[in-house]
Amino acid sequence: MDGEQAARWAAAQEGVPVGADLVAAALRQLRFLAAVDRRRWLYDEGPLLDRAIRRYKACWLPLLDKHTKGVVVDGPLVVPLDCEWIWHCHRLNPVQYIRDCKKVYGRILNNNNVESSTQTKSTLESEKVWKELYPEEPFELLFTRTFDTAVDVNPAGAEEDITYDLVSAVKRQSSFYYQVGTPTMHDPRFLQEALARYKAFLYLIKMNQEKGLQRFRVPTYDVDLLWHTHQLHPITYRNDMVKLLGKVLEHDDTDADRSEGKKLDVGFTETTEQFESTFGVRYWKAGCMYRGNVPSPVTSTPQTFSAEVGTGSYICKAQKDLNALDVTVVELYLQIVDIKNLPSAVQKENVYVRFAKNQSDMFISDGGRLDISTVTGKNTGVCLQCEPTGELILAVMVDQLSKKPEPIGKVSFPLHDLTGPDSKLSFEKWFELKAHGGHAASPPVSLRVAASATVPSSAQKVFTMVRMEPFSLKSCLLPHSIKDQNTGSWTRFVNDCGTELIRLQIREHKAKNSMAVVRELVGVLKSTKKQIQLAEFKENKWTLKDSNLPISHGTDGSLLDLKGDNHLIKLYRGRKLEYERKCCSAHSEDVSAVTAVKFCAEHPYGKAVALLDTEAQLIMVNEDWLLLPWISISVLFMDGDGGTKLGGGAMVQKGTVFGSDSIHTHTPADTSHRDTHDTRAGLTRARPDESYFGAGTTYPARI
């Protein structure tokens, strides 16, 4: 950032008016969007969404009109959730919202002294007023409720006079929470930086307007979250935009084609170039880029529960002895922006950077290569996952055609400086290199590095299943097809470092007091060397020992169901939800995988918590309490001795999954002066089955 760029950045921070606390309001918006996402029937076109829109027009807006004229309740007026969702989508077209309010009510209906139902402990006063005005209409719209009568039309004519297509507006906003509902977006440090970037984004629009330029400007998702938050304060947003631009800035979110060369793609590339040349800071940033399409749902009907699921959902005596390594992970975006003070004998176009960790890392093995942006003329960087420990080493190399690449020097920085609690989760600055060999220079060679990271989070646990065939002379001499099936084999579960966690074996033996054959699944923990019984086969199905997760036949398309206390685990064939592959359509039906999806009050539509890949012979687990049960279930699924009944007719045979009815063989938006936007931007998050954005993978600043 040179002097002129620093001056522009300061002008943006000081000169762009924002008359509301957008960081606190953004956190409230995220909580509200999470509540709506638990009621996805508010996303889908149909009777319930139509009802919500009618209630918004005929009930909420007239009540809000009364409230803005005079106090109708003691304290803030609480808005019903369904009405707030429609109000939310309406306000995200600020020009249309202002036009509709003035047409029907003669003024803008503001959000002052209004509170979301997700932010208050009591709605009694607001419910009382609602019931007095609309005695036949419930305060909250429920998924299970049916209606025989239509909402009474508001005498002021809102239902007829507001012609804006709210159904389409809802559809356009239905995927937004998936893009922003991440731990990083909830971090106040990240949001504070997002506010600064939002002001800089508005400053670009002002610059273009002053030059008479019509440019399509596309925000990243952190900027868009703050933009949405600003618009949810209608009068504040109107006043701020009129002061900055002389008019209300439009927010047209109708463009959705992200294909290369299309409006969004070109607009994002141009926005990136203008942002970086104007301010001297990177536009791409970890945690705020496009995450890909919303995963395909496993159900359209929410599961209902009486309470939140507690910790320790699976109680097993052996669970406390299962010493699985806890690993923390961050997503890191790294870009080498520039280099200066190179020795005169070194050609700049032959220089590149190698990056690596100074200690072992679960996600980075040998590091990778990075080109220098000012040399290539391309805005390229690397996006990867790594542990937020140790140091990242950057070695500047000279590529020599006839010789091995030669190092000029290196620099390193602690990842804690980037990801620690006192960090801003990003930086861009010059580093002086420690010279190598005869490359000492005065002034020293310096490297400009831009780095950003998501907040640290627990990494999912990944284990490979290693089958150990028992040794016997008989098994060596006989063909595989007729080997002794009663000689059980062990299955070891090992992590990426080759460390064994546990080994399991299915055994058969005769009962002590009868001739009946007893079948059981046993395990030996590496940490204790003790043998434990994990499951037993009785009454024609497997039962997990010491567990509150009984296995039953699957319902609604699942293979199996495991019903716990206030939660339900359903096993689906294929990669579902968070494990869904998005790279190509060929992976849309991956029958070699089984996904465990947890339903609870927080996730009524399901959350993928574990995966079994029968082809790769590995498991992934996102929640610690499920680790031992999933290890046990995975071995039972992989058992290949003619089919193991797990429950109610669902059978698994190696190479084939048998269900009850089938067999599958494994094999950003427009501004008022055409500075338009739709959230666009490149960094699709790493899929769990791919190499965690393997080292050396580069992504251009466009998709």
TrEMBL record:
Pfam families for this protein: C2_GRDP, GRDP-like, GRDP_C
Domain of life: Eukaryota
Domain GRDP C2 intervals: 327-455
Matching InterPro entries: GRDP-like (IPR009836), GRDP_C (IPR057518), GRDP_C2 (IPR057458)
Coiled-coil residue spans: none
Domain GRPD C-terminal: 493-621
Region feature Disordered, mapped onto this chain: 664-684
Biased composition (Basic and acidic residues): 671-684
Name of the protein described by the UniProt record: Glycine-rich domain-containing protein 1
